[in-house]
Amino acid sequence: MQKIGVFVCWCGSNIAATVDVSQVAAAAKEEPGVVFASDYAYMCSEAGQLMIQNAIREKGLTGIVICSCSPRMHEATFRKAAQAAGLNPYMVEIANIREQCSWIHKNKEEGTKKAILLAKAAIAKVHLNEPLTAGETPVTKRALVIGGGIAGIQTALDIADAGFEVDIVEKSPTIGGKMAQLDKTFPTLDCSACILTPKMVDAAAHEKIRLFTYSEVEKVKGFVGNFTVDIRKKARSILEEKCTGCGVCTTKCPSRKTGNEFNEGLDNRTAIYIPFAQAIPNIPTIDREACIHFKTGKCGLCQKTCGVGAIDFDQQDEIITRNYGAIVAATGFQTISLERFDEFQYSKSPDVITSLELERLMNAAGPTKGELVKPSNREHPKDMVFIQCVGSRGESCREKSYCSKICCMYTAKHAMMIRDKYPDINVHVFYIDVRTPGKNFDEFYRRAVEDYGVDYRKGMVGKVMEQKDGRLLVQASDLLNGQQLLLQTDMVVLATAIEPDKSARNLATMLTASMDTNDFFTEAHPKLRPVESPTAGVFLSGTCQGPKDIPETVAQAGAAAAKVIGLLCRDKLLNNPQVAQAKERLCSGCSNCSKVCPYGAIDYEEREVLDHGVRETRRLAMVNEAVCQGCGACTVACPSGAMDLKGFTVKQIMAEVDAICR
Ligand code: SF4
Ligand code: SF4
């Protein structure tokens, strides 16, 4: 019989206010095998850990149960403390009496009853625990960053500067991301391209960084320290090693009707194109859907024009397989579709634009060379209305429930830039609240109101109507004055909600990383591990984790890089020993387990088995312990009950259920 110690934590008043901790300790003491039980204010504190270690040594404990917060919070802490006192760390069990008990119950009597049951279940389980030993696997000293926006570039630069190889995979033909489309950045109003392009150049020139642009991650296998990734390098129809980036081909291309993505469709581009002047790599890509040669077999003007023979119409996609120790998701954001926001006339009036379109209109390298004109007739507007929170902070199914976080500040920026360059334009902003919680952010917003005379109105816009004279009529409410307003205007700018890039969900599935209900990647812990995903070896950088501005993105990119460096610095990693194991005599080799294993940890082997005195060769499931993450999916999929998880065996789970039902 095990000699078990039970330690009940108060967690200050977090647990003790709803659970009678001394009653839990007293009830635990009555359980078979329990030789010590006590409660303490903070078990995770130094004094609490010392109490545990002393009891292990003095009472000769062979297993312990900590009744405390979630194992996600402090399991590692308690395992380390136990190990330091000579107890195998896998002889430690946590009964979660905080998140699963005190935080969700108000009635102390009921809370205490439930806490006692959870403690009893953990005691029953620890009776059946066996000491486990972690194995070791080597670490591949290279990182993969998925996404080549500012988040991905900064993460890659920081990792590379520490001396590790990094690959950046970017799905579009150039790195730079959304930041490359911006004109100026808040709250300093410095030129976005001026601060971004040197970083793009640094990334391209860094000897430790390899860029895969116009490429996508197609398959991810493996586990922390040892990922194997297939990258699809899409055919640009250009021989990169030959192309000099002269751009002559793009001037000759007769196919000129495709919306220019970089300018948000405000002008057109050719079928062979370089996204923008500072694109990296600065070579063209042929858009095969728009190319006359690919559609009809004719044209080929670019090929005839290219002096170095760099056009290759027969180029095929290439699959490149690379190994990595760590992966960083930096897939960024996109703005939501405005299809379901017809009240603002976005799809009908060219003079209703998004904020990102305004960025391009205001940019000297944009479709109007920085001239602010109405897209409908190229005349200067006299009045402009900005509508905040379009699709953000809503309750209906067409809206996002969250705040997109950047819109208040970029609208203040736009308003200031317009009033600065065109003082004759009247600028009105309709808002729900103005949110400016950042360094110098509130001062920036106040400058827009006080120094630039921007007319901020607290209120909602009901609808925008097109009028016969081409102007727009905005119907809105002014909540502070309790008035209904009808405002004539020339242009309307929508601060459209942001959402994760559409590639994020597929990537999360490949990485077995979790996402929230809005498809943002979730962190391992929102406060203590904000740049790690719950999947070991997968890290998060930038807006793929949640809305954020550029300074926050860069800070998070640095933090993700620091975590990756910490991992790549190690030569070996300890494996989780709580892995699946197939019982030879029960396994029928049906393959059900390998079909459900998200990590590809199960293979099959022909093996000789002695079953009831009969020796025969059978097809058996074999678990690769280095790859298995102990998720347990296979144990429930196995129809013959052959798969079991060390540390979470069927016997242990049933013992817990029995203890609760007793
Ligand atoms: S493909 Fe040829 S023509 Fe086009 S940019 Fe490259 S070198 Fe110049
Ligand atoms: S527990 Fe089973 S399904 Fe889960 S990773 Fe291990 S082998 Fe795969």
Automatic annotation (TrEMBL):
Keywords for the protein's UniProt record, in alphabetical order: 4Fe-4S, FAD, Flavoprotein, Iron, Iron-sulfur, Metal-binding, Oxidoreductase
Family to which the UniProt record says this protein belongs: Belongs to the HdrA family.
Domain (4Fe-4S ferredoxin-type) ranges: 234-265, 282-316, 577-607, 619-648
Protein's name according to its UniProt entry: CoB--CoM heterodisulfide reductase iron-sulfur subunit A family protein
GO molecular function: 4 iron, 4 sulfur cluster binding; metal ion binding; oxidoreductase activity
Entries under PROSITE patterns matching the protein: 4FE4S_FER_1, 4FE4S_FER_2
Regions that span the bilayer: none
Signal peptide span: none
Names of required cofactors: FAD
UniProt organism field: Lacrimispora sp. BS-2
